[in-house]
TrEMBL record:
InterPro entries membership: ComFB
Domain of life: Bacteria
Name of the protein this chain belongs to: Late competence development protein ComFB
Organism placement in taxonomy: Bacteria, Bacillati, Bacillota, Clostridia, Eubacteriales
Classification via Pfam families: ComFB
Length: 90
């Protein structure tokens, strides 16, 4: 059986890691990180692949500045929302 992956999810996770290298998050716990990623993924189009060739093609498409900007925009919105409403005690 082929494994199906969502390139958008991989890119969002990578973008959040890169964002955290240069910026502080109000909370860095796994729950908050998951909520931020979920927020962004629910607002971005999925890009599925099941082969290495498909991954390469989708990855090339996602290198467009529009995609990077859109991912970062949704991540920052998710960070703001989760920081204001964490799913745990502060």
């Amino acid at each position: 059986m082929c494994e199906i992956k969502n390139l958008t999810e991989l890119l969002v996770r990578k973008a959040l890691d890169e964002y955290m290298e240069h910026n502080e998050l109000p909370c860095k716990c796994e729950k908050c990180r998951a909520d931020i990623i979920t927020y962004a993924l629910n607002r971005l189009p999925p890009k599925y692949f099941s082969t290495r060739r498909g991954e390469i093609i989708k990855n090339a498409e996602s290198q467009l500045l529009y995609d990077k900007t859109r991912i970062l925009t949704e991540l920052v919105a998710g960070i703001t929302l989760v920081a204001a409403n964490p799913a745990h005690e502060r």
